[in-house]
Amino acid sequence: MSHGVQGRKSPASFDGETARQVAQTMQALATPSRVRILARLKEAPCSVGELAEAVGMEQSAVSHQLRLLRHLDLVVGERSGRRTIYALHDSHVGVLLEEAVYHVEHIRLGFPEPVRATRAGSR
Amino acid sequence: MSHGVQGRKSPASFDGETARQVAQTMQALATPSRVRILARLKEAPCSVGELAEAVGMEQSAVSHQLRLLRHLDLVVGERSGRRTIYALHDSHVGVLLEEAVYHVEHIRLGFPEPVRATRAGSR
DNA sequence: TGCGTATATGAATAGGTGGTCATGCTACCC
DNA sequence: GGGTAGCATGACCACCTATTCATATACGCA
What we know:
Two copies of one chain form a homodimer. Chain A is mainly α. In chain A, helix 2 (about 30-45) crosses helix 3 (about 50-55) and helix 3 packs across helix 4. Chain A is about 50% helix and about 10% strand. In chain A, strand 2 (about 75-80) and strand 3 form a beta hairpin. Chain A is globular, with a radius of gyration of 18 Å. The interface between A and B is large, with 71 and 71 residues. The structure holds a DNA duplex.
């Protein structure tokens, strides 16, 4: 039961509040820069400077995104000397990232489940 | 092995192309309107009109979002008479949504894993 | 064939957001 | 204590995007 996501009740479309929360949190993964930041942190905690170099962004930009991720409780930062070491907030975030990658690979490539494929707007 | 997400290689921060794909796909869940649309479709396929009423949006707005979701291969639409019945593209999408909700509930509430909680920028 | 319904599409707009530049702040070091 | 490294913050801007309004297209029906 490392996953959850099985005994969940699925009311009609859940309330707008939940939708808002989901949307807000998922938006953290909605930009390449943040995805790469999180991916780097999933590998191992590191400082802002390392992060900036790892993802190829300016320190300021990284700091801004880190603030956003902090407010969403996706990462935590701990001051160490004059540096701040950031890390994923907990294992949930890492799993979320992995699942996102997993689904993207399966959704955007072919699909094991040939749904009727009715072409209603396949461009 | 219905899930995957366990034997995955995790290179440093994966390549920017993957990050872009993940970000683009996750952006489908980055707005309350689309989350609610997907949630409604996960419950059961339905027409654009029903969808619009279910999520409280104008038909046009729903149609625009559906186009976006179609291009991301998250939903499919099948013409039935003069209506178009939309449905999730496959079970992956439903699972992705469930996992998103699951993680949000666990991340944004308390957290089972008391990470050091060092308050680096808790405002 | 003409009319009403259902959906799709295009243009225009308001709001949000990621990035850069400049600067402030804290902690270390000499 | 001055200097500097590391990070955070604010202002500003260019861009993207979600929604609305208006209109076009597709289908069913009398």
